[in-house]
Design brief:
2 copies of one chain form a homodimer. Chain A contains 17 helices and 8 strands. Chain A is of the alpha/beta class. In chain A, helix 5 links the parallel strand 4 and strand 5.
Chain lengths: ~325, ~325
């Protein structure tokens, strides 16, 4: 006897939202909500999202709609994949449409400007009481959709709920682990964006593999120290949503944050780099918030501080690099 | 008033021993012991080690000798940089020549065949009671010698001794941190060799950045679980000697272990790959020992097991890769 079928609503027709919806469609009846009618039509008529995913085929059973109510009304799981700065307004629109016990899974990384809140904090403010977690990990959308093997983590406060959500996304090629540390899983993704700019910058300055490994590792230390001060567990930052996601971002030519760093290293001004990109590099937006959060909690984050100085206060990449070199090394964990 | 000058003896004229000796020579009177008279002459006459380091200049004050007694007689610090399988016999030759309180710093990675002992365990068996630790981290010798920025860790059981050893190697470009977890610092370097073969294999199979990040992260988990069972501290594996060294090895085209993995992925037999290399890839030698140690401690190391099967039992790279895919993912930390 097969279990009762469940319905999944994925909100957000960007590259990752569409990819997650396509994964879910192989396990459950899935509806993708997107604002753009062209995207909806392309998904329904041709199983494609040409705006973000070129000609890669989506699951043929995936349906899309521009009607938020139609997407969420019957949903047993809601996947929140809209951009960080649209999360609050989208959740406000969702509020009157959902039952209280429907789990919400965030797949968006980043911090809300102004409030410095993570996505699950924003969702919890608007829709308090729902089972709430994240799906996160080293997941470049195009590779996942193309069927390359990848791993991710579903983090929910309750392990039983995590396991049932796991089965919504998992496939032979997409390995979904569980974790109960929602905070750690979410913060890894938010903090790595700023740090990936630093690694990209090191690469752009051609300072060698040792140097990149040093900045990566010291950056991971900043992520872990700040992330645990903010309530995450240290082990989570050593896992797929921390070191894994950070590493994929640093290795991939597809990563926007890494690209920003490499371009800054060439001496190009940040405004020009950002103007030339068709999607936002999340780390550019969140650098100031990360440094502020670290200050509030008394955590030293020298790499994030230098990135904030380069992005927001006119420091050059080479000055930032020399600034880091002037800090005397002490005990590895300080 | 400057402190009393100290004498350093570095044993082993390979690429890393020579590089560490050159670093020490800028802070202390340093003698490099090498077996090869041509190496000794090249260091003394031309400040070069052409066998391993091409035309890169060494510190001009570095002296070399083939006479072990001359090297260690006045030494206040002994740096042990001979290959893993020569460590025991070298230390036996050193034993009658040194004072009991002279600190010994291992810079060799790997496990002794047969005994499965780490280098500091071998040294401690032959020269018990000496202050004993390691210098380790993401350090490709040529990059360090060429003056690219890099970071390393001196791990000694006593933080005060660690700090005095730190000052022997540190420079503006070579950042030396301290740690008291000798076991963790040493095991990271030993275990990463086997795991780097797996990451190189994934790269050779062209399975994408997500997949490589997955294997890297799950491999780091194996390193941490086995390393803590063997007495290391979890945080150390998230630091420069763990994730940092592992990452540099996986990124660098200079890494022998990574190269072995990439060649195995092409279907070349291991004997042929090894025969074509002029230096040993440590991971090939230690794969069986790592799997044995894991078995003794009841730790699951699926990636290391697959590498052992490929290296020692004729499994193909593609079979190993599929074998890993068949393990159902559970909680991230299991």
């Amino acid at each position: 006897v097969s279990a009762r079928a469940i319905h999944v609503a994925v909100l957000g027709g960007g590259s990752w939202g569409t990819t997650v919806a396509s994964l879910a469609a192989s396990n459950a009846e899935t509806t993708l909500w997107a604002r753009n009618p062209d995207t909806v039509e392309a998904v329904n008529e041709r199983s494609r999202n040409p705006t973000y995913l070129g000609d890669l085929p989506l699951h043929r059973r995936l349906r899309a709609t521009t009607d938020l109510a139609a997407a969420v009304w019957d949903a047993d799981v809601i996947v929140a994949g809209v951009p960080g700065q649209a999360m609050r307004s989208t959740m406000e629109a969702v509020r009157p449409l959902v039952r209280h016990w429907v789990p919400i899974v965030s797949i968006s990384k980043g911090l809300e400007l102004g409030t410095k809140l993570t996505m699950t904090e924003v969702i919890d403010e608007v829709l308090p009481g729902h089972p709430l977690g994240v799906l996160a990990g080293p997941n470049l959308a195009r590779e996942v959709l193309a069927g390359y093997a990848a791993a991710a983590v579903v983090a929910m406060p309750d392990e039983h709920v995590a396991r049932s959500i796991q089965s919504v996304f998992a496939s032979r090629r997409f390995r979904v682990y569980t974790n109960t540390d929602v905070r750690g899983a979410e913060l890894g993704g938010a903090l790595k964006n700023v740090l990936a700019i630093a690694v990209g910058m090191a690469e752009g300055l051609s300072v060698g593999d040792n140097t990149r490994a040093m900045i990566f590792t010291r950056g991971l230390g900043e992520m872990t120290r700040l992330g645990t001060a903010l309530g995450g567990q240290a082990e989570t930052f050593a896992g797929l949503t921390g070191v894994g996601d950070f590493m994929a971002t640093c290795m991939s030519p597809q990563s926007r944050n890494r690209t920003v760093g490499a371009e800054l290293a060439k001496g190009r001004p940040i405004a020009e780099i950002v103007a030339g990109m068709n999607q936002v590099a999340e780390g550019v937006k969140s650098a100031a918030s990360v440094v502020e959060l670290a200050g509030l909690h008394g955590i030293d984050v020298p790499i994030c501080c230098e990135m904030d100085a380069v992005i927001n206060h006119g420091r050059s990449a080479i000055e930032a690099y020399h600034g880091l070199g002037r800090i005397p090394p002490g005990h590895e964990r300080d």
